[in-house]
Amino acid sequence: MQAELSAKRAGLLLTAILLISGFAFGGASMGAPYRDMIVQIVAVATIAVILILRGDRVARIGILPVALIGAAILILVAQIIPLPAAIWAGLPGRDTVVALSALTGASAVARPLSLDPDATLLSLLALLPGIAAFLAVATLGSRDRLWIARLIIIGAGASLILGAVQFAAGQQATALSLFATSHAGQPIGLFSNSNHQADLMLIGLVFAGCLVPPAHARGAAMRQSPLLFYGLAAAFAIGVIVTGSRLGVLLLPVAIVAVLLRVGLPRKWSGFVLLGVVVGVVAVLLLARNLVIETTFRQFSSLEDSRFSFWPDVLYAIEKFSWFGSGAGTFDNVYRSIEQLVRVSPSYLNHAHNDYLEIVLELGIFGALLIIGFLVFMVLSGIRILNEDGLRAGNALAYAGFCAIVLILVHSIVDYPLRTPLLSIVFGSCCGLLIRRRWIETEIRDGDQSAPVEWAA
């Protein structure tokens, strides 16, 4: 019993440390190798301890999620294993290298499938924080998961406050940015990109809103607690708008509706607080012709976006490298080699601004299968959540995690949020919340359930 308690505490502590390291060091998608290394070291330690102390629970997580993790790792490892020269030369997209080798008289040598093995190895390491978060949260009980949800809200709140300070500082906000970025001076919070700040604000909104018990479950002791969470959700909603992220603003109503569907619309006025506060504050800001709000909504005056113009080049690259891909982490070099001359400029494209296209380009058909497999996992998880009819924290947190994942998946169509360690850890944590296994049910039967009276504890 004492050993199980120690393992439980270790799991919660490691998960909390991993999340904190992500919030402190993981807000950039590139250009912060030493900070990434810190997060990855914590992730390796987390994975090791979870496998040692809770290997039995890891084994019972489920075939599909474990298979997806194993497949992703194996695919990237396979891409850095040297292949015989004859096989490598026959792979799609390698003709240019083969021709150059022939012109220079270079001898044929064994090469890995990836055009840049070092970048692929870094991509493999970048998977670790998200995997660690998933394994850690998936093996936690219901009460510990509630603490992780609170920590996510606290981290989002810290990013919101820092963003507000950055906004108030105006031109001096560059000194308040945690990373060197072209977005300095904007309310980016703990990130280097305002779009990623919008993602975290949306996730904070969903978690804060879903921690409110459904309307029909509220007793006399719960009359005040919903107001606290609604207030947090309203603050996160304002934070989304202030970032100026167009898709973030478009996803904001989706997040609000998701919260209201979970909470329900009670007969009393408290159920309308979130919607009323958000609409009221936004209306006041608009009427005041606030510069930030005007700038945000001015972006919707035109549907033109430069990222759409280079997607055809990405599709061409996908066709060129065909089934096997160019290798994880090779997008930058590959795109430079096929970019149309009319688009060449002093700036460069670090990502495809569509993670689905980038994954298929780099991993080929195997990347497409991984995407399909994860979508199947999401559909099955969504069906299970809809079929559950309990008021326990596990059900509410699974719903919040599901909604947060959907928001990130949609934003990944035009951006790359999961390229940041911070959002990767939050994403992995949300995936872990979808796992429902016997140990959670046992804790609930033994009294470790977060029933309605526990929601705001």
Write the layout of secondary structure elements.
Blueprint: H1 2-25, H2 33-53, H3 55-59, H4 63-79, E1 82-83, H5 85-89, H6 95-104, E2 111-112, H7 117-138, H8 142-169, H9 194-210, H10 225-243, H11 246-263, H12 273-287, H13 291-298, H14 306-321, H15 331-338, H16 355-363, H17 365-387, H18 393-411, H19 421-433, H20 438-445
Antiparallel strand pairs: 1-2
Q: What does the model show?
A:
With 457 residues, this protein is mainly alpha-helical. The protein has one domain. Helix content is 67%, strand content 1%. It is built from 20 helices and two strands. It has helices spanning 2-25, 33-53, 55-59, 63-79, 85-89, 95-104, 117-138, 142-169, 194-210, 225-243, 246-263, 273-287, 291-298, 306-321, 331-338, 355-363, 365-387, 393-411, 421-433, 438-445; strands at residues 82-83, 111-112. It has a two-stranded antiparallel ribbon. Helix 2 (33-53) packs across helix 7 and helix 11 (246-263) packs antiparallel against helix 18 (393-411). The protein is globular.
